[in-house]
Amino acid sequence: MPRPAKPLIRYDAVIEISLRIIDTEGLDAFSLPRLARELNVRAPSLYHHFQDKAEILRAVARAIVLEARWPDEQSVPNWVEWFVRLSLDFRSAVLRHRNAAPVLLQFMPRDVLTRTYDTSARLLAELGVPPEQRVLILDGMDKLTVAAAITEAVKGPDERGRAFANVDPATEPTLAEAAELNPRSVEDLFAESIRCFLRGALPYIDADAPAPSRAAITVGDPGAPAAS
């Protein structure tokens, strides 16, 4: 049988539908036969475009990370808040796709994150952070942002929106009191953790110094949206 003049399967449609299945039905519901039915093709047809299911899931993970966006330097008051916004946008992208958190754990697109961190390193250089200290900041941001976002994503419905939701006042009274009196939302706690880390790691950088413009720090940047 001759090959169709136009491909029957669009790459972007495969990723979009795969993510929709995972979002609405859960990761366990995702399979190549299930995906093929949504695309109105036979499952073997997918192998003309993707090596296997893992390759599709790898592309799904990449699509989620690419949903995050660079902060607009005009919308943040200083460099600390630039990093906070960067981290919050990544967190939001992950939380929009909670069911896909295991996919991110297995197939996190490190090439996208590395490009993001390279741009962040340029921002740190513009601020006067010595080269030998930049990895300390970027590695810390990676651990705080990626781990916190995925940890929040896998929480059950009863745990979401509260810090230490499962604490028992009868057995952990001190922690229970702290959790009860905590005035911040889970998102605010995350943002404040980023602020504390940056101010503590770089006490000699004025916390109110403005973030350099993107034009000043993205020369040669491949243009990938921010991740974390």
Describe the protein's architecture and organization.
With 228 residues, this protein is an all-alpha fold. Helix content is 57%, strand content 0%. It has ten helices and no strands. Helix 4 runs parallel beside helix 7. The longest helix is centred in the middle third of the chain and has 23 residues, at 131-153. The protein is flat, with a radius of gyration of 21 Å.
List keywords for this structure.
single chain, 228 residues, mainly alpha, 0% strand, disordered N terminus, disordered C terminus
Element layout with pairings:
Elements: H1 11-25, H2 32-39, H3 53-65, H4 79-95, H5 101-107, H6 110-127, H7 131-153, H8 173-181, H9 186-201, H10 214-217
Helix pairs in contact: 1-3, 3-5, 4-7, 4-9, 6-7, 7-9
Tell me the overall shape.
Answer: flat
Terminus-to-terminus distance:
47 Å
Number of beta strands: 0
Q: H/E order of the elements?
A: HHHHHHHHHH
Please state the average pLDDT score. Answer: 89
Uncertain spans: 1-6, 219-228
Helix content: 55-70%
Radius of gyration: 21 Å
Largest sheet: none
Q: How much strand?
A: under 5%
Number of helices: 10
Overall structural class, as computed from helix and strand content, comes to mainly alpha
